[in-house]
Request: fold
Amino acid sequence: MYDLTGFQRDLLYVIAGLEEPHGLAIKEELEDYYEKEIHHGRLYPNLDTLVEKGLVDKGQRDRRTNYYTLTRRGRREINARSNWESRYVEEDEPEAEAGVGIEN
Reply:
């Protein structure tokens, strides 16, 4: 996961959170998060990269629509990343939320 771009990691998280999403559904989720338009020229090459890396499977719903799912390796990578992040970021940090211990 360390060799992925932030955008590619976000793609993995969106695919993990939706059931067999198609490209447009992924695009809409990311546009909501980024609050800007995601162009097809950015989306689909990055999805193809994730497929080539073995993190995502691409299936065909009909002749025009593909769907994406995480592979076992993709799910393992997300879990490993989550475990790594949790070493540095705690879920419930009341001091940080209240501004305690933060110097200006």
